[in-house]
Write a structure and sequence with these properties.
Elements (H helix, E strand, L loop, with lengths): L1 H27 L8 E9 L10 E8 L5 E6 L6 E8 L7 E7 L7 E6 L2 E6 L3 E3 L1
Parallel strand pairs: 1-8, 4-6
Antiparallel strand pairs: 1-2, 2-5, 3-4, 6-7
Length: about 130
Amino acid sequence: MVRRAGLLSLMLAPLGGCTLWSNLLSHQQPVADCPAVTRATAWVDKMPRIGSGDHKMIVALSLDDDRPWLLTPVPSSTPGLLTLELSPGGPAVPGHAGYRESAGNAKREAISIVCGGEERARIDQIRVTM
């Protein structure tokens, strides 16, 4: 039984590598058909909770498009700025995109939404809900 599992994993390993490689290549190419951002909001959820779970910062976008979109953080040289890249796909509802991260101690001052190498939206006010 162990031999079969090992053999099966060796046979399927190249498929995983191909998928990883194609995902890496797809993120390097700019998206030509970026949708218009119709609404962009961000807030820190500091509602009281039971237990010791971290508070979350949530970013929500409404888009002028009927496909699901994904927000992925990219490195930023500006302190306090969170840069999120908008790309097709992901688990979002069509026409929307969202992102969550632990609020932690680092306060975000602004959020930049980038698609196709250009800034599509900027959020300068991040609300705190209590």
